[in-house]
Predict the structure of F-box domain-containing protein.
Amino acid sequence: MDRVSTDVLVEILQRLPHSSRRRHARHVCRRWRDAVNNRITETPSTPKLLIWSRSQAIAYVADDLSPSSTGSCTELWRPRSHHHLIASCNGLLCMYNRGDIMGGAITVANPSTGETMPLLPMPCAANFIGRHGWEDWHDAYSFAYHPTTGQFKVVHVPCSYERVYDFHAVHVFTLGNTTWREVSAGPSGAMCKLEAGVVSVHGMTYWVTITRGAAAKIVSFDLTDDRVISATTPVPARHDHCRLTEVHGRLGYIVWPDVWVLVEGKRWIHRYSFEEGIPRQHFVYGEYVLTCNSSSSSFYGHRLIGSDNNNVVLIGHDKKTLVAKWAYAPQRYYYDSDNYVTFAYVETMEPLSVYSKNK
């Protein structure tokens, strides 16, 4: 390989799967590491719209958000038992099955290959008596991809389940390892307000905690060095009026009708203003933005065209295309309008077997 020019080496490395370049190629030698870090620009495909039906426990995809969309969806994945979808990340689905253990059971699946990988339960897993309030335990998990190491990580954030059981630390499981790691979240515990969501973006996991005045504050966990730090929000808001999202690889903060985006991890910019509903959890797909009706049973694509004088993109009622529709939202999710949850999905043919043991 020493006789191969750098340009040829880069061309070869570009043909490897995205995560393989980061996870394996970087560790071959210094020359390969420099080629991956300095010469290869990652340009992932525009993600498809993945819609998860909580009542059916089925994942659907709609790959057309343009005006030519027929409004139809294709079934992507149907677990064998009733699961909650935690997240979709680089072609892998991370799912939660409540089962009979505290903290639930986690499974990672690749719909393109049909493979599944059950993960070890958290260290605190045990038979639990009195399961009231377990329905939202999956909300404390996030599924993250580290762009530098190429590792996938499952993160469980500090939280309290109706004071029945409290988690005061961050728990992390890296695919390919055999144990969970516990990381201190500091003396205050940085307890997550689950309704605001847990989002992992570019090697960081974010959640919302509550100050004594009932205001929202953002907490971040660095997947590189396990640091837990807090940051201010772009605008004051009560914890029950805000939620987190991901916008083009950056952290987004929603206080309807407005969306702010964190730039370079330092400053917030007001990016979008909506006249319609904003889906949970993902709403930006390439050059299109997704909106939903009040029951989250119909989704519409809006092509991004321009912005106002303050560079805020206005998402109105006009020039929208129906991209997915269900007849109704089941009664059990009527009050939270979250039966249909949206994610970003990009196919990968990389087998899960590469994570069967520590690499």
